[in-house]
Amino acid sequence: MVAVRLGHPMSLVLEDVTLGYNRHPAVHHITATIPDGSLMAIVGPNGAGKSTLLKAIAGELRPITGRITNSAGRSGTAYMPQIAEIDRSFPISVREVVAMGLWRRIGPFRRLGEAERQAVADAIAGVGLTGLEARPISTLSGGQMQRVLFARLALQDASLILLDEPFTGVDSRTVEDLLDVIDGWHRDGRTVLAVLHDLDEVRRRFPEAMLLARDLIAHGPTETVLTAAQLTKARAVGEALDETAPLCQRAA
Ligand SMILES: Nc1ncnc2c1ncn2[C@@H]1O[C@H](COP(=O)(O)OP(=O)(O)OP(=O)(O)O)[C@@H](O)[C@H]1O
Questions:
Q1: What is the pTM (predicted TM-score) of this model?
Q2: Which domains does the chain have, with CATH numbers?
Q3: pLDDT by residue (tens digit) across 56-90?
Q4: Domain ABC transporter, which positions (predicted)?
Q5: Which of 36, 50, 70, 43 is nearest to 185 (CA)?
Q6: Is the ipTM here above 0.90?
Q7: Does the CB atom of residue 20 touch ligand 1 within 6 A?
Q8: Order of strands, edge to edge, in the sheet holding 24-35?
């Protein structure tokens, strides 16, 4: 395949993407191009398909129809699922969880060299957790755990970063700190897509947005997406969602 490298290289292209589970619909016919370096929030009502779309972009769910082209590839993509999906009972320390961010580069069994130990320490410092390196993750607060996950993600050095509700159960001070970490990734030129519910936060900190309600309602600059009319439309679709509908009610 020939890579298209115009003035504005495209890192992520969704072409008529339909996603679902067990033949039930979750996301319908999404077509969108997300340019390299975007800082985009994905918003929409409960059950709109936001997590499903992120999973598919991460390569964890195959589209039923359509195509996702992610030029970062699996190795250049970092995906943070919702915190509820993470097992925190495992007896492992903050330092060990953060160091997992290096696995793709060095493998899980190699001992860390000096430079790698420093990179882990820097990542932990970058999220304000210096001093807690040896703590088992089962003893952390929700906000501290979220910081650990951000530090691990920072070490993955991915060009596409996917965050599913990264601020659930996190106090406002930590949210602002983690938003600053995200800003740093954006300044580095990485592409960041984050599923979020707080529209004020999105308006303040995310230049682009995607509004989803099974269908794509709108995407582009945040102020053009989060209009009263489009939010009303998304809410109406959300209220009418039929969990048992057949695969696709619209002619493909
Ligand atoms: N593993 C699964 N198996 C079957 N159906 C699923 C699965 N995960 C999600 N769904 C269904 O897919 C639809 C979209 O769910 P999804 O979690 O993507 O929505 P969401 O927009 O992220 O919602 P929320 O804001 O509530 O997290 C819902 O109808 C949900 O019940």
A1: 0.89
A2: 38-60+73-209+220-227 (3.40.50.300)
A3: 999 999 999 999 999 988 889 999 988 766 677 78
A4: 12-239
A5: 36
A6: yes
A7: no
A8: 24-35, 10-21, 65-70
